[in-house]
Amino acid sequence: MQITDNILLLNGAGMDSNVYCIDNELLVDAGTGSFVEETLEQMDRFDVDKNNIKKIVLTHEHFDHTGAAKDFKEKLGAKVLIHDEAELTEERSISHAFDGDFEPPEVDERLSEGDVLSTKNYSFKVLHTPGHSPGSISLWDEESKVLISGDLLFIDGFGRTDIPGGDEETIKESLRRIKDLEEISALLPGHGTPASEENIYDDGAIENILSQIQ
Question: Which pLDDT band, with edges at 50, 70 and 90, does 200 fall under?
């Protein structure tokens, strides 16, 4: 599914997180592993050159976002990146909640607040936005106003905190930080439908959810 210029949504089926492909260079999140082959087939359908994907960025530790990271790393030859405070352990991945067996990937790079992930058309700044998990990040491209929010913010709600590593006050602080960004033109959440001015799913959804942040 084409979300915005040079951004594809490749997965999001079942319990899997959304998987975004940016500029044919960068994958954001990986899903549980249940749909690896289907995701690779989608890449072929969209004429994605899989040899050109250099990095897999994980927005946080949970199994529905990281379970397939090891497979994708091996099949694509890409590096895996995650925040400094993220721990890819069975406990922090809460893989038991998904009846999954977690095989963590080797992490190639650790991300910190303010790091920039650049592709041909985007420069995403790493924002440390904990609360759903200690290692949660969002990615913000200031020029295009595209926000990849992981499980912090969805078009119809906010991330859970009633799980190991979750913290209600911390997520409120992270949400306020997102609300203070300049106008968001596209919101790409970790689950559910993305919203942008260019697709029919927006219909004021971004403004509406931001208005609910206290």
Answer: low
